[in-house]
Design brief:
Keywords: Membrane, Transmembrane, Transmembrane helix. InterPro entries: 2TM_dom. This is 2TM domain-containing protein. It comes from Chryseobacterium candidae. By secondary structure, this protein is mostly helical. Helix 1 packs antiparallel against helix 2. The longest helix is centred in the N-terminal third of the chain and has 36 residues.
Length: 101
């Protein structure tokens, strides 16, 4: 089994990416589970002859889905994300500062 130097920058970047992926997959699981429960609840409470296809039945899935899509962009397209660029710049700045001391 290969061991990793926890002070290595490449290791730290990879570790952060794994944490982002884990967070996204947890978010995705919660989205699917909660919306499945909402669908079941809504189906059980339909009035006779009422259509399921109403905006109120898709409200949570729609707006939470927008948030989930934004989360996916930050996880799977990190170079597009200005936060990632800021993090890298800040890490370099702090490392340079530590070298000076």
């Amino acid at each position: 089994m290969e061991t990793f130097d926890e002070n290595d920058m490449d290791y730290q970047r990879a570790r952060r990416q794994v944490e982002r992926l884990r967070g996204f997959y947890g978010h995705l699981f919660a989205y699917i589970a909660v919306n499945a429960l909402i669908v079941v609840y809504n189906c059980m409470h339909l009035k006779p002859g009422e259509s399921y296809f109403q905006f109120k039945n898709f409200f949570t899935a729609t707006f939470w889905g927008i948030g989930l899509a934004a989360h996916a962009v930050t996880v799977f397209l990190p170079r597009v994300n200005f936060i990632k660029k800021w993090e890298d710049k800040k890490i370099k700045e702090l490392m340079d500062k530590q070298k000076d001391h």
